[in-house]
């Protein structure tokens, strides 16, 4: 097995991408877009920009990182540094270097990992099988269609541009260009230029989705009779999954960003990942947070590692399912709601650019309940070309929801609270900011959910332009986007800014406990985890590290694959216990070895062979010691003498046993075999029996 990490990603919106070579099949796991890279583009043309070079950054200098301070000393970026052109989109760096026709399988773990797939499937040589859950397929398709819809606004600004090369990069290679801009465009090593590509069309999306095999909840799919593939809930989002692959050479689990207890999606189903031969750990989310220090984990639960080896599996598993993380997330959401209420009470509006579907669903529910219980009469607008279809879809997939949401559906209630508030006209859905119904319904202050989180696409751009000078208004950003670069085109900005970081994976301090519960034979982790995992008290598990754009060869955990034999067939086999191996036996039959359902199966022609009445000769292996053979012959009443002959180099070449009684003959032994020569069939038969008693054979 070989693993190549094509990209370690950059948080929830840009998941990792891997290429796996398993059982001779090449498997691509996730195909995302780096949407953070489009922040280098200006959201509007030169003639509508703001004069902002004299304004300071909206981030205080003492709150900036050393890298930001260095950039500030070099030259502060201005809106004029941004690219004024129709955006191109950045794919996984090394993916365009792989031959599309050599990819056999594509596995998509969550909707964000689907966004770059149409760029791959539009290659005429692409012929791989694509697997993802039904929910991921539907939500991901809606997200791609919304992305294309928002992108069309740029074409209205700049006009169609059908060039095959990103011409704007020619202006970004000079010494006066800010280092941050160069890094995004060309990459740290300067070889990212080939990753930029034009966005796909709606037709490309439709063509891509026709090639997808959507996997139902708990469904097993078989690829080529060799690999059995299971999608197991990861808890990150509705329909997001981890992968379990069983094949003839063992089992493999792929663990992406996961949440043990989710308030909206089905919980992380880690129990079914127990005991796999290889586990690929691909949750990089903890590297985007401040939960680790130079010396390792920095959390209140760090001391729990010291007792891992003392707990049984049930207690360890129970410790992973505590609700503390869920309560923390709920507190964050409640804080966002309180800040929005404060702004509304002061006469200001709130713009929420968060697009994580699970977070949006919970915020809509909490905000509506909060406003209903207060005296504030503030409308909530959701502006997106796919808002109505996406929100409606969440009530049709109970199998991918958490237990509490499932119970609501069973009792006849909607799974999420937004259905009630939409019906009561407290939440208003509109496909675009210029929708006639929105214009007639508009009132301020209001709370608006609008894409895109990058602040370069969609209704959020126009609304941020409208409210940027209002100190009573609130902008809610998602963690991952740099507020400096993201807000650069809108400076000066007087709005209050709230940047939220929500749980998007497994916290690093829980990884030792998870590994102790799952007990894989080998675990593969990113090299960035070196020195950050406490190994001292966790159960011993071989651990290999992988690096970006490097191939890691994984040793086999078992030398011999298992073979399934029917009980009826096994009972008919004549087993011969070998002398040279303890508890080791062989049986001989005529048949065929097949590959079915990811397992070797033995289909035999034993009955046909037995009915033919033909005896099958024994096959022996090994060398015969002349002295041992002669002793056995003497016990049978056969006498003889041993003659040794040497070769030209002085070493023993062969040995001959001359038979003198009861009849003449000789036995010649050498490294290449043993020959019996005699005219007496009885003597020949006795000699064969003696050899059979010495050597192993079937």
TrEMBL record:
For this UniProt record, the keywords arranged alphabetically read as follows: Cytoplasm, Nucleus
Q: Which GO terms describe its biological process?
A: snRNA 3'-end processing
Domain of life, per lineage = Eukaryota
Its annotated compartments are: Cytoplasm; Nucleus
Q: Which residues form the signal peptide?
A: none
Keyword Metal-binding found: no
Q: Which Pfam families match?
A: Beta-Casp (PF10996), Lactamase_B_6 (PF16661)
What InterPro entries does the record tag this protein with?
A: Beta_Casp, Integrator_9su, Metallo-B-lactamas, RibonucZ/Hydroxyglut_hydro
Pinpoint the Beta-Casp domain residues.
Answer: 360-481
Give the CC-aspect GO terms.
Answer: cytoplasm; integrator complex
Q: Hey, which family's this protein in? A: Belongs to the metallo-beta-lactamase superfamily. RNA-metabolizing metallo-beta-lactamase-like family. INTS9 subfamily.
Q: What is this protein called?
A: Beta-Casp domain-containing protein
């Amino acid at each position: 097995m070989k693993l190549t990490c094509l990209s370690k990603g950059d948080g929830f919106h840009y998941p990792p991408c891997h290429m796996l070579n398993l059982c001779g099949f090449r498997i691509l796991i996730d195909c995302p877009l780096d949407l953070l890279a489009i922040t280098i583009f200006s959201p509007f043309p030169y003639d509508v920009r703001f004069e902002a070079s004299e304004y300071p950054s909206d981030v205080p200098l003492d709150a900036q990182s050393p890298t930001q301070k260095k950039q500030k000393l070099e030259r502060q970026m201005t809106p004029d540094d941004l690219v004024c052109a129709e955006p191109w989109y950045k794919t996984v760096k090394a993916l365009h270097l792989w031959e599309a026709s050599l990819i056999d399988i594509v596995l998509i773990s969550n909707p964000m990992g689907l966004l770059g797939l149409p760029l791959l499937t539009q290659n005429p040589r692409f012929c791989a099988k694509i697997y993802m859950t039904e929910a991921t397929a539907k939500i991901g398709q809606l997200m791609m269609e919304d992305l294309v819809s928002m992108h069309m606004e740029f074409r209205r600004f700049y006009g169609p541009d059908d060039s095959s090369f990103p011409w704007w990069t020619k202006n970004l290679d000079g010494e006066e260009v800010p280092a941050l801009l160069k890094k995004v465009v060309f990459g740290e090593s300067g070889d990212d230029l080939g990753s930029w590509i034009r966005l796909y069309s709606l037709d490309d999306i439709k063509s891509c989705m026709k090639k997808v095999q959507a996997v139902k909840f708990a469904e097993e799919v078989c690829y080529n009779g060799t690999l059995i593939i299971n999608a197991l809930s990861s808890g990150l989002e509705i329909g997001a999954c981890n992968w379990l692959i069983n094949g003839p050479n063992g089992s493999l689990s792929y663990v992406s960003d996961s949440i043990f207890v989710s308030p909206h999606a089905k919980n992380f189903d880690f129990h079914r990942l127990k005991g796999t031969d290889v586990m690929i750990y691909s949750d990089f989310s903890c590297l985007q947070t401040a939960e680790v220090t130079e010396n390792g984990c920095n959390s209140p639960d760090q001391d729990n590692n010291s007792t891992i080896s003392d707990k049984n599996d049930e207690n360890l598993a129970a410790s992973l399912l505590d609700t503390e993380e869920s309560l923390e997330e709920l507190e964050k959401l409640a804080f966002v709601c309180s800040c929005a209420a404060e702004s509304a009470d002061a006469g200001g509006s709130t713009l929420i650019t968060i697009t994580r579907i699970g977070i949006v669903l919970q915020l809509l529910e909490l905000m509506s309940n909060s406003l209903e219980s207060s005296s504030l009469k503030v409308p909530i607008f959701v502006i997106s070309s796919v808002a109505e279809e996406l929100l409606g879809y969440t009530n049709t997939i109970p199998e991918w929801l958490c237990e509490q949401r499932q119970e609501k559906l069973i009792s006849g209630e909607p799974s999420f609270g937004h259905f009630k508030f939409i019906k009561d006209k407290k939440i208003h859905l509109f496909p675009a900011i210029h929708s006639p119904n929105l214009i007639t319904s508009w009132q301020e202050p209001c709370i608006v959910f609008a894409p895109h989180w990058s602040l370069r696409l969609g209704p959020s751009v126009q609304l941020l332009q409208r409210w940027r000078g209002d100190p009573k208004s609130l902008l809610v950003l998602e963690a991952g986007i740099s507020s400096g670069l993201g807000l650069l085109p809108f400076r000066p900005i007087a709005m209050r800014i709230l940047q939220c970081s929500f749980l998007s994976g497994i916290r690093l301090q829980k990884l030792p406990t998870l590994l102790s519960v799952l007990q894989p034979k080998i675990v593969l982790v990113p090299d960035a985890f070196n020195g950050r995992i406490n190994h001292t008290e966790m159960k011993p598990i071989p651990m290999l590290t992988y690096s970006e754009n490097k191939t890691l060869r994984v040793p086999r955990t078992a030398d011999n694959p298992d073979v399934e034999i029917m009980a009826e067939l096994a009972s008919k086999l004549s087993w011969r216990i070998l002398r040279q191996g303890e508890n080791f036996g062989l049986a001989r039959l005529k048949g065929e070895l097949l590959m079915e359902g990811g397992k070797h199966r033995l289909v035999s022609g034993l009955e046909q062979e037995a009915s033919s009445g033909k005896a099958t000769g024994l096959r022996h292996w090994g060398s015969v010691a002349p002295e041992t053979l002669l002793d056995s012959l003497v016990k049978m009443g056969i006498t003889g003498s041993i003659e040794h002959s040497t070769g030209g180099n002085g070493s023993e070449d062969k040995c001959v046993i001359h038979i003198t009684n009861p009849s003449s003959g000789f036995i010649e032994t050498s490294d290449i075999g043993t020959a019996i020569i005699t005219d007496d069939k009885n003597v020949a038969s006795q000699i064969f029996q003696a050899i059979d008693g010495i050597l192993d054979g079937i």
